[in-house]
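Tip: read the tokens left to right.
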């Protein structure tokens, strides 16, 4: 799923650059198409169904065990094929599991994008995982301790509202501006301020 066009990416890059001009903090925006493949899920459900399937035939029919075994294999194979497509896989995964996996990916990206190296621990990651329908603002300790959790949640809620209405770029731009205002309030730029992290929107490969 493509949330933003090339023109939208340029808008987001410009928004990051503008926000960072008013602060010594760093802002990085990342979109992940998905945070996990969940390929094990179809096989797990198919295996459970295949294990349960023989018992009615064993208890209440005179079918030979060979026929039951072949039917068991057929049920396993059929369910794997039915459940393997991505929408089916995702539908079978509990929301809490998807959100936990997306949060883990956000933490991984926080480190991978070197936000933990920002001076004063002022790095902020705006992260969206599309398949999991998950968004998060992840802030390092320097800024996080100065901002109430409810403020981050408000920014996330506005971002997800825009994504849900098909205005992902506007959501990112507004979220970046809000994060920039918070950073500027607590960590204004000084003569030594240098921004070394990427200003462009980072879109991870599937």
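Filled-in amino acids:
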């Amino acid at each position: 799923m493509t949330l933003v066009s090339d023109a939208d990416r340029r808008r987001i890059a410009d928004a990051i650059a503008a926000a960072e001009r008013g602060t010594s903090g760093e802002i990085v925006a990342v979109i992940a198409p998905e945070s996990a493949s969940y390929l094990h899920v179809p096989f797990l459900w198919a295996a459970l169904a295949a294990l349960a399937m023989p018992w009615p035939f064993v208890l209440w029919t005179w079918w030979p065990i060979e026929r039951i075994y072949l039917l068991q294999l057929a049920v396993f194979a059929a369910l794997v094929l039915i459940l393997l497509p991505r929408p089916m896989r995702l539908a079978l995964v509990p929301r809490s599991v998807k959100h936990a996996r997306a949060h883990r990916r956000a933490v991984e990206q926080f480190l991978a994008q070197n936000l933990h190296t920002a001076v004063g621990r002022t790095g902020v990651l705006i992260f969206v995982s599309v398949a999991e329908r998950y968004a998060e603002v992840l802030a390092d300790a320097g800024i996080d301790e100065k901002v109430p959790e409810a403020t981050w949640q408000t920014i996330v809620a506005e971002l997800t509202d825009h994504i849900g209405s098909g205005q992902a770029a506007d959501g990112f731009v507004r979220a970046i501006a809000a994060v920039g205002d918070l950073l500027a309030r607590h960590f204004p730029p000084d003569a030594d301020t240098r921004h070394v992290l990427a200003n462009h929107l980072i879109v991870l490969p599937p």
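The CA atoms of residues 147 and 182 lie 8 Å apart. The beta strands are 26-32, 123-129, 134-139, 202-203.
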